[in-house]
Design a protein that fits this description.
Length: 360
């Protein structure tokens, strides 16, 4: 008996299409902003009262990151993830995490095929465009760690053989923060892989009424969202975001915010350079979604809490005193001076540049 290698038809016939050889041309900022608005409007027709969280989730995907929704059950986290996947044209798979889930249940495994007398790799549900790990804190740390390589490198390794995941590939996970029995808190290394952690919160009375009326009007339980773009267009949008440069002052501001979390009296371990990088990338994607080809300090401030809060480890004294990591980040944002508005600085610079070379 032999093990089929990835280049043999027996090992590759069940794998989704791997990374494309040629990428579509990057889209301009204005087109990315228009498509982003269309995606959010389409998702918002089904997911009610979550516009700010949806904007951050889409910005994270455009920045190439992964999203963690941490909130109480029943707020539409799974519906939001499924709707975003449908709107951006990605293949979607959902896995309900349980204590007896094994790493092979996520990544896949080699299975003996009697017809060929070989061990053939059968891909797991992670071989998709957008993978939803529902209630990820209900599965064991061993199984949670199976996502680390996939989230960081876009591949999985099984029995010494590496298999690339489809591109784009994104993980959206949900976590229930109110239950502790039978759950396993995500370790710091796992939390740091998520670019943002989002909390939806309860809707107001008007928003909750809209949720009820939307359910009645569609006459069925399952809400369907038609695609706005396809996966190739999403890659072109992501490439367009990557082409946008960031002012040096903005980068220094992101570094200063991350550094301030490391010096804070309530913090044991502050944000790493991955945190400051995530801050910059999500802020840039947010700026592009707003139709700008430059990042302003308000973009950084708007994403600071969802990007940095889950990366902080608080001291025992702060934890027992009820201090929240989000409070620490808010205090840091309020205390660290920001750079001047980049947009205003650019406009001023352009106004002072003489029209050299033009006929008088």
């Amino acid at each position: 008996m032999t093990a089929a290698t990835p280049d043999l038809p027996a090992a590759s016939r069940d794998l989704p299409a791997a990374r494309p050889a040629a990428r579509p041309a990057a889209l301009p900022v204005a087109e990315i902003a228009r498509l982003s608005g269309d995606i959010l409007d389409r998702v918002g027709s089904v997911v009610v009262g979550m516009r700010p969280a949806l904007e951050l989730a889409l910005a994270t995907i455009l920045a190439g990151g992964h999203v963690l929704f941490e909130d109480v059950p029943g707020l539409g986290k799974t519906l939001a993830a499924r709707s975003i996947a449908s709107a951006i044209g990605l293949d979607f798979r959902r896995l309900q995490c349980t204590p007896d889930l094994l790493p092979a249940d996520i990544t896949g495994s080699f299975v003996y095929a009697p017809a060929s007398a070989e061990f053939v790799f059968r891909p797991g549900p992670i071989f998709t465009g957008l993978f939803l790990a529902d209630e990820i804190n209900r599965t064991s740390p061993k199984t949670q760690s199976a996502l680390l390589e996939a989230m960081a490198e876009g591949q999985v390794t099984v029995e010494g053989q590496s298999f690339p995941l489809p591109e784009p590939f994104h993980v959206v996970a949900t976590s229930n923060p109110i239950e502790f029995e039978g759950t396993y808190a995500l370790p710091e290394a796992q939390l740091d892989r998520f670019m943002v952690r989002l909390s939806v919160g309860y809707p107001d009375a008007q928003g909750e009424s809209r949720v009820l009326l939307a359910r009645v009007s569609r006459r069925r339980e399952v809400a369907m969202v038609e695609p706005v773009i396809d996966d190739a267009t999403l890659r072109a949008m992501q490439d367009g975001v990557e082409l946008v440069d960031v002012d040096q002052d903005i980068a220094a501001y992101c570094v200063a915010l991350a550094a301030a979390t490391r010096r804070h009296r309530s913090v044991e371990v502050g944000a790493s350079p991955r945190g400051s990088q995530g801050l910059l990338l999500v802020a840039r994607a947010r700026a592009v979604m707003a139709g700008r080809d430059f990042v302003i300090p308000d973009d950084v401030k708007a994403v600071a809490v969802p990007v940095l809060a889950h990366r902080l480890s608080l001291t025992v004294q702060a934890w027992t005193s009820g201090v929240q990591a989000s409070q620490v980040v808010t205090e840091v944002v309020n205390s660290v001076p920001g750079p001047p508005s980049v947009g205003a600085a650019r406009d001023a610079a352009r106004a002072t540049v003489p029209d050299a070379g033009l006929p008088g």
